Amino acid sequence: MLRALIAARAELAGLEESLSALPNPQVFIQSLALLEAQASSEIENIVTTTDELFRAETLAGREKLYVNTDFLEILRGV
After folding, report:
1. Residue 67 and residue 64: Cα distance in Å, rounded?
2. CA distance 5 to 3
3. pTM of the model
4. What is the DSSP letter of 56?
């Protein structure tokens, strides 16, 4: 098990290094979370296409923009 943990840590370090080269790595990370949620939902027989999923997230993101407390803090600082 220790070997598996060491290997996983090395892989995560490689991923982190690759992500640092992206202009906005959060987009990639959020995409992974959405795809994982999609796969988990299929277990509960909730099926959607990847296209529908990303379109819904785009529309929801606009609404979240106004209720996200982090975003409100940024606006107060401007």
Report:
1. 5
2. 5
3. 0.56
4. H
Q: Dig out the tokens for 75 from the structure.
A: 């606006």
Amino acid at 49: T
Distance, C-alpha 30 to centroid of its chain:
1
Residue keyed to tokens 């959060």: 26
Per-residue pLDDT tens digits for 6-37? 999 999 999 899 988 989 988 888 888 888 88
What ranges do the domains of the chain cover? 23-77
The enclosing H or E element of 53 equals helix 50-67
CB 54 within 8 A of CB 74: no
Q: 20 by DSSP, 3-state: which?
A: helix
Residue 55 neighbours by CB distance under 10 Å: 12
